[in-house]
Amino acid sequence: GITLESINDLIPSAADLDDASRLDKSGRYTQKGRVPMFYFDGLTLPPDEEAMGNADPRVPVFFSKIDLLNEWNKQYPGQEPPKTTKVLDLIETFQSLIRPGGTDKTLKNIVFVPNEQSLKTASSLRSDASIPKYSFDEMLMVAGKASEK
């Protein structure tokens, strides 16, 4: 079986939910438990052959529209971002990733990009080995390499 060392909730900020609701008029981002992820078609990160085992560019998705725009400006300084910002739901994306026989090549190379504050908080929690207080106002995305036993 699978043993979980910890359980975490990902709770988007109200601003991120508002951004997602403006982009996706279906009403899904007014439902409890939805976590929006933002991306632009054509925005990629260099391949990570060691971690992903392939040489294809990675498709970054961000938990904040502001972080997406910052990455665009970093890669394409002075250029206007695409007119269409796209949004995905985290759970629906996970379901697509694990669905047997899935053929969406974009999802194969998707990489979740946490914000700087989440990375700092995660690092601090790992070093302190403390249990964080629950907060409805922030979302922490923690990423790391799997360890072999």
Question: Which key features would you list for this structure?
Answer:
single chain; 149 residues; alpha+beta; two-stranded antiparallel ribbon; two-stranded parallel sheet; 6 helices; 34% helix; globular; disordered C terminus
How would you sum up this structure, described in words?
- By secondary structure, the chain is α+β, with helices and mostly antiparallel strands.
- Helices cover 34% and strands 11% of the residues.
- The chain has six helices and four strands; from the N terminus they run H-E-H-E-H-E-H-H-E-H.
- It has helices at residues 14-23, 49-52, 65-75, 90-98, 105-108, 116-128; strands at 36-39, 59-62, 86-89, 110-113.
- Strands 1-3 form a two-stranded antiparallel ribbon. A two-stranded parallel ribbon has the order 2-4.
- The longest helix is centred in the C-terminal third of the chain and has 13 residues, at 116-128.
- The protein is globular and about 35 Å long.
